[in-house]
Amino acid sequence: MKSFINILIAVLVLTGIAPNYAEAMATARIKDIASLQAGRDNQLIGYGLVVGLQGTGDSLRSSPFTEQSLRAMLQNLGISTQGGENRSKNIAAVMVTATLPPFASPGSRMDVSVSSLGDATSLRGGTLVMTSLTGADGQIYAVAQGPIVVSGFSATGDATKLTQGVTTAGRVPNGAIIERPLPSRFKDSVNLVLQLRNPDFSTAVRMTDAINSFSQDTYGGPIATVNDNQEVVVEKPKRADLARLMAEIENLVIDTDTPAKVVINERTGTIVIGADVRISTVAVSYGTLTVQVSEHPIVVQPLPFSNGQTAVQPQTDIIAQQANSKVAIIKGSDLKSLVSGLNSIGVKPDGIIAILQGIKSAGALQAELVLQ
Question: Which of 74, 84, 170, 365 qualifies as a cystine partner to 148, CB 3.0-4.6 A?
Answer without folding.
Answer: 170
